[in-house]
UniProtKB/TrEMBL annotation:
Protein keywords: Signal
UniProt protein name: Uncharacterized protein
Species of origin: Flavobacterium silvaticum
Signal peptide (from-to): 1-19
Superkingdom of the source species: Bacteria
Length: 183
C-alpha cells in the first residue's frame, strides 16, 4: 500500500512541478474514495471544468450533459471528497480544496486557491498549518533530519521564483514520503 501510494503521489507531483501541458476537462474526474483514485476508477460520466477558482467553486458536468456552474466544494451538490484537476489529485476537506502532495500516516497538502501548506495525521486528524519545526522534529525522531538538511535545494542564479519554489516543494514532498515510509 505504501509503495502504491508513493508511486501515485509521485505521479501527481511530477504533474504539479511540470504543469505546462494542456488538459482536457474530461480528465478532471471525481472519485468516490481514495482507493478509487489510486486505481483510476472514476465516478462514471462526471467531470469538472479546468479553471482556477479562488473560491473553491468549479463547474461540474454530469453524464446527461447538464453543467452546473460555480458549484462550491462545501455544497450538498458536490459529488465527492476526491477529484482530479489539471492532473492533480484534490481532496475536499471542510468545504475547501487541497492538492494532495503526499498521503500516508502523515498527509501533506497545498491549498488549491493560495498554495499554503497543511498537514494532517491520517485521513481523520485535524488539518494543521504547515509547521517546519514540527516536521523537522518528526524527521529527527526517524533519523532523517541530517539528510533533509544536506539535500536542501540551493537557489541557482538561473532559478525563477516559481522554479525555486518548485524545488523546495519537491524536496519537502520527498521527505514527507520518506517519513511516511518510516511511520
Amino acid at each position: 500500500m505504501k509503495k502504491t501510494t508513493a508511486a501515485f503521489i509521485l505521479f501527481f507531483m511530477t504533474t504539479i512541478l511540470f504543469a505546462q501541458e494542456k488538459y482536457d476537462d474530461k480528465d478532471n474526474l471525481f472519485y468516490a474514495t481514495l482507493a478509487d483514485a489510486q486505481n483510476h476508477n472514476p465516478i462514471p460520466g462526471l467531470y469538472s471544468k479546468t479553471e482556477f477558482d479562488p473560491y473553491d467553486e468549479f463547474d461540474i458536468t454530469y453524464a446527461n450533459g447538464e453543467t452546473k456552474k460555480n458549484v462550491k466544494c462545501k455544497s450538498k451538490e458536490w459529488p465527492s471528497e476526491y477529484f482530479t484537476n489539471r492532473g492533480m489529485l484534490i481532496r475536499v476537506i471542510e468545504g475547501k480544496a487541497y492538492v494532495c502532495l503526499s498521503l500516508g500516516r502523515m498527509n501533506f497538502y497545498s491549498a488549491f486557491h493560495d498554495g499554503k501548506k497543511f498537514t494532517q495525521e491520517g485521513n481523520t486528524g485535524a488539518l494543521k498549518k504547515w509547521d517546519p519545526k514540527y516536521f523537522e522534529s518528526l524527521l529527527q525522531q526517524h533519523d532523517l533530519l541530517l539528510r533533509y538538511q544536506m539535500e536542501k535545494p540551493h537557489r541557482e542564479i538561473s532559478d525563477t521564483v516559481s522554479g525555486y519554489g518548485s524545488k523546495i516543494m519537491g524536496w519537502q514532498v520527498k521527505f514527507m514520503m520518506l517519513l511516511n515510509e518510516k511511520l
